[in-house]
Please model this.
Amino acid sequence: MNPESSNNNSQTNPRKRPLVEEPNNNKQPITLNSMLVAIDHNNLFYTMSKATEKRVIVVIMFDRAARVLFGCSADEFFDFSKTHPFAAASAGNALEGEMLKITLSQPKNGNARHLRVVSVFPMRTGFQPVIQTLRELYRARGGS
Model:
């Protein structure tokens, strides 16, 4: 086997090249457009699945970035969810399919598995935070 041709072949193999949508080795944050596929809030952070044009990636979103989408802190949303049991599932349904511009960075902890969301910007003009949507929904149903 010719070493020059095998080396050249590895550079053109799409699996050998780093993906454009992931942060580079210098740990510089990158910004990309994506669609929110699902959101899970079972821990102290939000696990968000986002879809780019190539694949679906699971990322972690802490309170500072999540405040843009939810319109409140995680504590406030937790208190709201205690009085409205299906609020968390409704929030996931309300955010599903939203087009977002997000900035991702590598985790500072070397053991962490998922990329971190540094900032979020909703791309829809009429976007309103989830807490406002849920309050309107539960008010219309006769809740508090």
